[in-house]
Amino acid sequence: MAPETPGRETQETLSNLLHETRRFAPPAGLAASANVSADAYEEASGDRLGFWERAADRLSWGRRWDTTLEWTPPFAKWFLGGTLNVAYNCVDRHVEAGRGDKVAYHWEGEPDGDTRTLTYSDLLREVSKAANALTELGVGKGDRVAIYMPMIPELPIAMLACARIGAIHSVVFGGFSASALSGRIQDADAKLVITADGGYRRGAPSALKPTVDEAVAECPGIEHVLVVRRTGQDVQVTDKDVWWHELVDRQSDAHEAPQHDAEDPLYILYTSGTTGKPKGILHTTGGYLTQTSWTHHAVFDLKPESDVYWCTADIGWVTGHSYIVYGPLTNGATSVIYEGTPDTPHKGRFWEVVQKYGVTILYTAPTAIRTFMKWGDDIPAKFDLSSLRVLGSVGEPINPEAYVWYREHIGGERCPVVDTWWQTETGAIMISPLPGVTAAKPGAAMRPLPGIVADVVDDQGASVPDGGGGFLVVREPWPSMLRGIWGDEKRYVDTYWSRFDGMYFPGDGAKRDEDGDLWLLGRVDDVMLVSGHNISTTEVESALVSHPKVAEAAVVGATDPITGQAIVAFVILRGSAEESADIAKELRDHVAKALGPITKPRQILVVPELPKTRSGKIMRRLLRDVAENRSIGDVTTLADSSVMNLISEKLPSAP
Ligand code: 6R9
């Protein structure tokens, strides 16, 4: 999600407003037995490449590498000369080590009672059959395969089958339109699409196949469409279609995993593309698997023998790639995959799943946490959540109040919360607390992980002192970094490596507090400039969410004749709060008190919903259109495009 053009030039760096003093030390028991201790920071700072070599040694290599890092800025190659097979690392080696009966995935379909359990041995058989099927369809090493599927076991199986034979998968989120799908198929020049008739969402079958048919009509390069029967909906069968149950089920379940080079491509994943053409982010094999595996082991303290891990993301996003498929499987984890929505058939579904499987580690997004806050504390209180021991957050800055709510109402005040900052482009977690080490602050991602060199710089690229704010950068290459944008080398250099000399610029604002800890402040494109001060939307939103009546808030800067930009806030009230005439004043005063008078919103609008992307990020660009009384821009990446009508209806007729 990095900006097309680097963020607006700023006269000064970000104002540093929020003063959060709460701290949560790691529980003593967890600290004593944690996978990673504070020594890791020292180990990595003394010998960064040696640290990543030891992380790579957690994997099984066919041939060990010769060169750990070849760095020709901004192009990195890791573990050159090494060979490995990703699927072997995720599946076969656990079976060979006698852990074949261990559950890899507890799959929970959305319809009640619709479940499947896959052990590592089951997964090995299924992936081998699928790999043989792909070969029969003429798919070989380096070919691109588009995957457009619901959250069913065949989705990770299809990804692993591609990885096994060296085909490059491009997973397209199952909620995207036919034109989004065909654009991605064409950009990657894929020859096969793997899909399903449909999946279950919100209590009903939701068709996928008609969208694929429409997309494939525009894609002459597609030779076959491999279709899983999930819902049993009627599908129109075309001459390119092959049923999964007919082709895959009759294959041999023996398949020898070939070795691939460490720098062979593993997958392409298109970023959400809020502006312009989506970017095909390219990840490769050895470095990506090294960092996803190590971070999953370190940040979640995963104990494969005893933990039940659940990441609630969709596999169609990078979080699902790295932390439902590749990271957890390399570590031999037992994971939960849930197909549907959190409110089906009731608003306690997530907590029912945690209780049912005894989930110990939960990884979800701030948008979900704020929704649960809005639904009310009494819902999770009805379930036994005592199995949980580590909680994670990803996708947006987590507001301190949401963090504290998550810790208290889900984590029973005993579970550390790890706020993990990273991107599609970084491939794996970069900045995060370690649950057995860090005394975390609510709302802070805290420190770069061992082996990662990140910094906050001013607009000249100079490191800001403690207490300062500015732009987040990464100063040294990391194993799971993107290797480029598919088919567009120049765009890779322009987007990420041009703003600051020799540094990777992810497009996010950040501050470093007096203790040297990092706080992410949102996309620099969203920063507001009020009377000459750069103010982060995240901080004002967090101040609003800290008011007991507010569940969610989105803040934008709207052109103002006096102050340049003025702050306009859109808020959703908590379930129990009544909308009263003086709520706007109450909230404006609350923000002024929390952050200072300059941050007092000019206008506060109570709305029923906020516009979000399909991965749950607030689209402030559309709210800026509303606040500036413009016609609303492109809404095609919105999860629910009717939301903008709901918001417009709440507007005072002509501001
Ligand atoms: C993993 C993922 C990346 C953008 C990123 C940033 C935001 C993600 C965050 C966070 C603050 C966190 N972001 N995690 N901001 N704190 N813990 O979400 O990838 O979809 O590519 O989005 O998301 O703005 O630049 P992706």
Automatic annotation (TrEMBL):
Required cofactor(s): Mg(2+)
* Entry PTM: Acetylated. Deacetylation by the SIR2-homolog deacetylase activates the enzyme.
Q: Does the keyword Nucleotide-binding apply?
A: yes
Q: GO annotations under biological process? A: acetyl-CoA biosynthetic process from acetate
- Which top-level enzyme class is recorded in the Swiss-Prot or TrEMBL entry? ligase
Write out the similarity annotation: Belongs to the ATP-dependent AMP-binding enzyme family.
Q: Which Pfam families match?
A: ACAS_N, AMP-binding, AMP-binding_C
Domain (AMP-binding enzyme C-terminal) ranges: 539-617
Organism of provenance: Sphaerisporangium album
InterPro entries documented for this protein: Ac_CoA_lig, ACAS_N, AMP-bd_C, AMP-bd_C_sf, AMP-binding_CS, AMP-dep_synth/lig_dom, ANL_N_sf
EC number, UniProt record: 6.2.1.1
Span of domain Acetyl-coenzyme A synthetase N-terminal:
39-90
Where does the chain bind CoA? 201-204, 319, 531
Q: Which residues carry this modification: N6-acetyllysine?
A: 617
Does the keyword tRNA-binding belong to this entry?
Answer: no
Q: Which PROSITE patterns match?
A: AMP_BINDING
Instruction: State the UniProt keywords alphabetically.
Output: Acetylation, ATP-binding, Ligase, Magnesium, Metal-binding, Nucleotide-binding
* Superkingdom of the organism of origin: Bacteria
Q: Which residues bind Mg(2+)?
A: 545, 547, 550
Q: What does this protein do, in the record's words?
A: Catalyzes the conversion of acetate into acetyl-CoA (AcCoA), an essential intermediate at the junction of anabolic and catabolic pathways. AcsA undergoes a two-step reaction. In the first half reaction, AcsA combines acetate with ATP to form acetyl-adenylate (AcAMP) intermediate. In the second half reaction, it can then transfer the acetyl group from AcAMP to the sulfhydryl group of CoA, forming the product AcCoA.
Give the catalytic activity: acetate + ATP + CoA = acetyl-CoA + AMP + diphosphate
* NCBIfam families membership: Ac_CoA_lig_AcsA, PRK00174.1
How is this protein named in the record? Acetyl-coenzyme A synthetase
Q: Which GO terms describe its cellular component?
A: cytosol
What gene does the UniProt entry assign to this protein?
Answer: acs
